[in-house]
């Protein structure tokens, strides 16, 4: 399992919460920790969206969607980053947002349309 984040303070908060809950995890916050990645270990991998490129996990949690989607060129780059993050999941994907943003709002609308279609 992997938990993605887009800002360093989010990674620290996620790692701290997992530690407090007693969940074994690896916070891949720098190049040294990334080199030590133990893919076979049954731990939650905590890493930036950028760092996940080329990796796959059965379950992916992408935190902080509300922090993405600035304006203009930034929004375009964030869209690419979010695409990379979302496509790391091979079975389950959970997206979280604690505030509104263009991406959070669009994903919410898509979820509502999906619920209506399957109802």
Plain-language structure description:
With 119 residues, this protein is α/β, with parallel strands linked by helices. It has helices at 8-20, 31-35, 73-86, 102-118; strands spanning 2-5, 25-27, 44-48, 57-62, 89-95. A 5-stranded parallel β-sheet has the order 2-3-1-4-5, with helices on one face. The longest helix has 17 residues, at 102-118.
Helical stretch count? 4
Secondary structural class:
alpha/beta
Rounded to an integer, what's the Rg over CA atoms? 15 Å
What would the principal axes of the Cα set say about the shape? Answer: globular
Strand tally: 5
Reading the helices and strands in chain order gives EHEHEEHEH
Sheet having the most strands: 5 strands, parallel
* Relative strand content: 15-25%
Weakly predicted, low-confidence segments = none
Biggest sheet, strands in spatial order? Answer: 2-3-1-4-5
Mean pLDDT: 86
Q: What distance separates the N and C termini?
A: 30 Å
Helix content: 40-55%
What is the topology?
Elements: E1 2-5, H1 8-20, E2 25-27, H2 31-35, E3 44-48, E4 57-62, H3 73-86, E5 89-95, H4 102-118
Parallel strand pairs: 1-3, 1-4, 2-3, 4-5
Question: What descriptive keywords fit this protein?
Answer:
single chain, about 120 residues, alpha/beta, five-stranded parallel sheet, about 20% strand
